[in-house]
Inverse folding.
């Protein structure tokens, strides 16, 4: 239970961060806010305004408060009187306080509204709900409705209902949402920007749901936060910004950046770039010398976790068909990383992680005793745990591949040694995550943070000990990992390969506008926003000729003007090819895109040997180019574009 005493600590943290509003916890495992003695009084004493989420209208929390045995189903269509009575009781109780009231209705907990099926039925019913709620607010809170802060949150299926003609009163704020993975789904058009209620944003730095949770570490790229919230600001979404974090301690830097931008959207103009903001925070927390050393380390951390979040390294998905998958979760263990493509794609990824992990451990020696605990929580744990998660799964994949091989007698001994080494690395990484988490919970600052860190949220398969083709003793694990550490080879270069050409978006030859690459965004870490009707041009050479494919990787943004999201690609004088990467709803392609952090689109092409020109033109707003690649091996399987820039 989160007591009033705990809430006070949370509110004090919020005030230090200059935040003044909270949507209290609404999961079934938490006690509803208004059932917590003293919670509202503590909020008032700290000047914290209370609001509720997209599925908690009228300051309610049906997930925790609604009792079907006593109140019947939470169904406005079949049980309207009971639902209205429930809302009325709450409004009477909270009317004297500062609140922002949510209009609308969804299921008890993040599900669709009960009792309606077609879009037409949903629209008609939700319109009746809003009309009833406005009457209740007028009756119990204030006869002057325009003086009552209200919001409507078009989240998930509710956005479709809103765009189907739902009438939301002009004085009600529209709180737009991202897609739960950081990409805004909709913003106010010019007409909506004139609404007296204004608009705001509900943003995620953590999420529970499909295609996969990310509830362990916080790794949303600072560049994505900056770009999306800047876009929101310039669409007049300024009245409210609220962010979903699973734990403010774990989300510390991203949360601070989000709230700093809320106070000063021109942060990058007044105090340097987003990357400079990161550097300044590190210098502030650990001193100039250490901060300067940590800066490239943490930049690379956000680069590697953008390629694949630690929570996604198992390649499984959640909320699938429970008849097919136990608990609706697919098994972990497959990976799209390759150990053989492009000088060892997976090896380069692991080597990059090993490099920053070593740096963090070396820098730790310079941290004064009084700051070692803070350093462990904010730097060492996330960096080392993310590195270990990548090692655990990629080395397990290597071991399985080695075990399935058919080797000659000469090669068999070497293969067995490699198999033992890969298995040992995988198990050692799993053990390190467990031991670091134990230290976090039981020894950090004398045990102050007990129970705070969970290394396996919801017990998802990605957090399990991997299944390996052999069993190893503890002695063998230590022996083979020690040998491997003595023989580590760097993978910091990519050998020239005539079968492909690849570039980052920022490496353009010319542009029809003045590009402003976004630091710390994309696999390239400098993705380029491409304004509508503007172009980027690249000149490149090929030493081969024939059929090829053009792979363009863009940030998987949404058409936040409810239209399409398209760009064209043109090689030499060939006709431009139009690509749309709009994904309506949670399609399989959308899932792949958000898990990867890129939408990779493939266009066939035919090339002669020699010099060529690629022109990429935005046909809609919200296009951000990350990388591209011309590949003469069309069926090549790989995950990371072979560009050596970090």
């Amino acid at each position: 239970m989160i007591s009033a005493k705990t809430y006070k600590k949370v509110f004090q943290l919020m005030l230090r961060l200059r935040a003044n509003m909270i949507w209290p916890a609404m999961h079934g495992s938490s006690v509803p806010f208004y059932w917590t003695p003293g919670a509202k009084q503590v909020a008032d004493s700290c000047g914290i305004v209370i609001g509720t989420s997209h599925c908690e209208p009228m300051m309610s929390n049906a997930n925790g408060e609604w009792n079907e045995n006593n109140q019947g189903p939470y169904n406005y269509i079949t049980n309207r009187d009971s639902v209205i009575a429930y809302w009325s009781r709450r409004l009477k109780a909270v009317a004297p306080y500062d609140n922002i009231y949510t209009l609308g209705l969804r299921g008890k907990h993040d599900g669709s509204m009960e009792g309606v099926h077609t879009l037409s039925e949903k629209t008609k019913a939700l319109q009746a709900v809003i009309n009833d709620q406005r009457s209740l607010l007028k009756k119990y809170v204030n006869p002057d409705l325009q003086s009552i802060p209200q919001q409507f949150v078009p989240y998930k299926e509710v956005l479709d209902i809103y765009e189907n003609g739902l009438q939301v009163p002009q004085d009600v704020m529209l709180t737009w949402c991202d897609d739960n993975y950081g990409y805004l789904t909709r913003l106010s058009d010019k007409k909506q920007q004139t609404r007296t209620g204004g608009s705001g944003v509900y943003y995620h730095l953590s999420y529970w749901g499909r295609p996969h949770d990310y509830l362990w570490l916080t790794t949303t790229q600072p560049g994505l936060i900056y770009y999306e919230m800047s876009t929101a600001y310039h669409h007049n979404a300024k009245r409210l910004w609220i962010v979903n974090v699973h734990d403010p301690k774990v989300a510390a830097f991203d949360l601070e950046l989000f709230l700093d931008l809320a106070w000063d959207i021109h942060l990058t103009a007044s105090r340097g770039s987003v990357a400079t903001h990161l550097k300044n925070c590190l210098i502030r927390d650990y001193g100039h010398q250490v901060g300067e050393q940590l800066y490239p380390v943490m930049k690379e951390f956000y680069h590697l976790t953008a390629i694949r979040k630690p929570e996604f390294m198992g390649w499984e998905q959640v909320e699938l068909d429970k008849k097919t998958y136990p608990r609706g979760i697919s098994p972990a263990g497959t990976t799209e990383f390759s150990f053989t493509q492009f000088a060892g794609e997976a090896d380069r990824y692991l080597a990059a992680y090993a490099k920053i992990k070593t740096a963090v451990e070396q820098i730790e020696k310079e941290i004064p005793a009084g700051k070692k605990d803070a350093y462990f929580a904010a730097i060492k744990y996330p960096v080392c745990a993310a590195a270990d998660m990548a090692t655990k799964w990629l080395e397990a994949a290597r071991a399985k591949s080695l075990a399935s091989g058919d080797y000659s007698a000469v090669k068999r001994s070497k293969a067995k040694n490699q198999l033992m080494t890969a298995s040992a690395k995988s198990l050692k990484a799993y053990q390190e995550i467990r031991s670091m988490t134990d230290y976090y919970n039981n020894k950090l600052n004398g045990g102050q943070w007990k129970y705070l860190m969970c290394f396996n949220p919801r017990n998802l398969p990605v957090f399990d000990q991997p299944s390996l083709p052999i069993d190893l003793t503890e002695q063998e694990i230590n022996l083979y990992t020690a040998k491997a550490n003595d023989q580590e080879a760097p993978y910091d270069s990519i050998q020239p390969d005539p079968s492909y050409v690849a570039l980052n978006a920022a490496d353009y030859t010319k542009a029809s506008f003045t590009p402003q690459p976004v630091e710390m965004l994309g696999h390239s870490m400098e993705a380029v926003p491409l304004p509508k009707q503007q172009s980027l041009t690249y000149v490149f050479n090929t030493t081969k000729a024939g059929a090829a494919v053009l792979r363009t990787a863009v940030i998987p943004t949404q058409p936040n003007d409810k239209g399409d999201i398209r760009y064209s690609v043109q090689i030499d004088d060939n006709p431009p090819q139009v690509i749309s990467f709009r994904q309506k709803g949670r399609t399989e392609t959308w899932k792949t895109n958000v898990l990867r952090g890129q939408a990779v689109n493939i266009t066939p092409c035919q090339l002669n040997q020699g010099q060529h020109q690629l022109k990429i033109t935005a046909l809609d707003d919200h296009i951000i180019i990350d990388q591209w690649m011309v590949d003469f091996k069309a069926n090549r399987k790989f995950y990371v574009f072979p560009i050596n820039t970090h």
Remarks:
- DSSP finds 17 helices and 18 strands in the chain.
- The CA atoms of residues 31 and 381 lie 30 Å apart.
- Residues 409-442 form the longest helix (34 residues).
- Residues 4-251 form a domain with the TIM Barrel fold (CATH 3.20.20.520).
